[in-house]
Every structure is written in C-alpha cells, then in structure tokens.
TrEMBL record:
Organism: Halosolutus amylolyticus
Protein name (database record): Probable branched-chain amino acid transport ATP-binding protein LivG
Role description: Probable component of a branched-chain amino-acid transport system.
Pfam family, one: ABC_tran
ATP-binding is among the record's keywords: yes
Chain ranges of the ABC transporter domain: 18-263
Keyword Hydrolase among record annotations: no
Swiss-Prot/TrEMBL GO biological process terms: amino acid transport
Family the UniProt entry places it in: Belongs to the ABC transporter superfamily.
C-alpha cells in the first residue's frame, strides 16, 4: 500500500476510512447538506472549513449518527453505517469529542475514563450490568484506564474529581474520554473555540500528540491553524463541497478566495 509521510508524525494511507456518497440532509424545505461526496483517508488530519451555516456541524451529526440522513450513504471502514445508531458507530470506531460536556464533574478523573472505556464493546445502557463483570475483565479495564491516564498526562490527578481540575487538565480529560472509546476516527467540532492563543496551541499539541494514530476530522474557524495542521482541507459552502485539497491548493483556489477566504482573512 502506498504510504505518504506528512510533516507531522502521522502517516496517511490511500485507504478510505470514511466515505459519504450523495449525502443529503434537509430540514423542512431547507437543504443543510447538499449531495456531499466526502472521502477521508486513514491517518489523515482533515479540517472542514466554511462560513457560518455552511453545514459543517450538520455533516458531523450525520457521520456520528446524531441526525438521520435524508438521502445518500455513509461508509466507515468499507462498511455501510448510514442507519446505525450513534452508540453502534462509537463501537465501530467513530469517536466524537463534545469538549467538557462529555465529562461527569462529580466523578473522579479515573472514573470518567473508566466509564468511557466500559461503554464500548457492550450496549451503553447496560452500565449497571457492567459493574458485575468477571475479575479478569475488571483488571483489564483498570489497566486500560491507567494506560490512557498516563497517555494524556493525568495519572497524578486520577483521584481528583473532574470539577476540581484546572482548565488545561479538563481538556486532557476530554481527550482521554474520547481515547477510552478506542476510536479510529475522531470528530472535533471547534475544539479551540473561545480559547486564548496559548490554550489553543496546547490543545492542538495535545490532540496531535495523543491522537497520532487516529484519523482526525476537525471543524475549525482559525484559518492559520487550519493551514498549519491539515493534510487536506474540505471547504463547505451552502451545504456543498466547494473545494478540497492540500492547504497550498486551498490557499490558491480562486473559488475559495472569492467565496470564503477573501471575506475571512483580514
Ligand atoms: N435542527 C435543525 N433544524 C433546522 N435547521 C437547522 C438545524 N440544524 C442546522 N440547521 C440549519 O442548517 C444550516 C447549517 O447549520 P450548521 O450548524 O451545520 O452550520 P455550520 O457550518 O456548522 O455553522 P457554524 O459555523 O455557524 O457552526 C444552518 O442554516 C442552520 O440554521
């Protein structure tokens, strides 16, 4: 298989991990997603950009299963997932970061990660049943939780409640919670929204470091960041794919400049 090395340590293959075909989402008469054919290759860092209301979040909702499609198909890892539930998609390997809202503030850091780890491989609604698992499975789950806590740098604060964490550690926990679901693809909807320049850089560094083996799909408004991070960029406009390419190709694309970048970059 052809391998291509990018500027980061991540490596991209030719194999598509996610593919949408003629994807359509209508809200009444309004078409929010308009015949989108998207292909993301395994290992890619793909940013989705576009003006407000372009349909970026709607596209994520279709991929994660939060919204049913109006028409078209979604394939993940070569298999059709168009009608699978969100939890079935998580078990297939599609993780979605909801930032802080994924975290239970009253539980400890370790409990949060463990709960997320427990939720895969079984029906999420069987959380009570999962408390009564055989001991070897219990140990395996604890080991896995510890490895994730190490990976995201939270081993030292594992027994603190999530509410007591400093801001930066909360972001680490959020990424730990996503990682605990063992994803192959992670969707991030504006992970740096409202952050200072410093916090933005820290969060991005963390995502790049911890999720180096995952395919990343990220909605981001900060164009400079998008240009720096992406292997490829997809530009949405009025629900349609306006352009797709490497950062260099997108920067030079006249349609993008006319419709979007010209108005965005001051
Ligand atoms: N549940 C809904 N019902 C009706 N219209 C919706 C719904 N969700 C989204 N829309 C509309 O679909 C369009 C696309 O919205 P979406 O949130 O996907 O855009 P976006 O590109 O993520 O925008 P932003 O950058 O502002 O977050 C918008 O016009 C929005 O008002």
């Amino acid at each position: 298989m052809a391998m291509e090395t990018t500027t980061s340590e991540r490596s991209t293959t030719d194999e598509p991990i996610l593919r949408t075909e003629n994807l359509v989402k209508k809200f009444g008469q309004f078409t929010a997603t308009d015949r989108v054919d998207l292909t993301v290759r395994r290992g890619e860092f793909r940013c989705i950009i576009g003006p407000n209301g372009a349909g970026k979040t709607t596209l994520f909702n279709l991929v994660s299963g939060a919204l049913p499609v109006t028409d078209g198909s979604i394939y993940f890892d070569g298999e059709e997932i168009t009608t699978l539930s969100p939890s079935q998609r998580v078990r297939r390997g599609i993780g979605r970061s909801f930032q802080i809202s994924n975290i239970f503030g009253g539980l400890t850091v370790r409990e949060n990660v463990r709960l997320a780890a427990q939720s895969i491989g079984r029906d999420q609604y069987n959380a009570v049943e999962s408390l009564f698992k055989p001991t070897d499975r219990y140990d395996e789950m604890n080991d896995r939780t510890d490895r994730i806590l190490d990976r995201v740098g939270l081993a030292d604060v594992a027994d603190e409640t999530a509410d007591a964490l400093a801001y930066g550690d909360k972001r680490r926990l959020e990424i730990g919670v996503v990682l605990a679901t063992d994803p192959d693809l992670v969707l991030f909807d504006e992970p740096t929204a409202g952050m200072s320049v410093e916090e933005t850089q820290e969060t991005i560094d963390l995502i790049e470091e911890v999720l180096v083996d995952q395919t990343l799909l990220l909605i981001e408004h900060d164009i400079e960041l998008v240009m720096e991070l992406s292997d490829r960029i997809t530009v949405l406009n009025r629900g349609q794919i306006l352009a797709e390419g490497t950062p260099e190709e997108i920067a030079e694309n006249q349609d993008v400049q006319d419709a979007y970048l010209g108005g965005m970059v001051e």
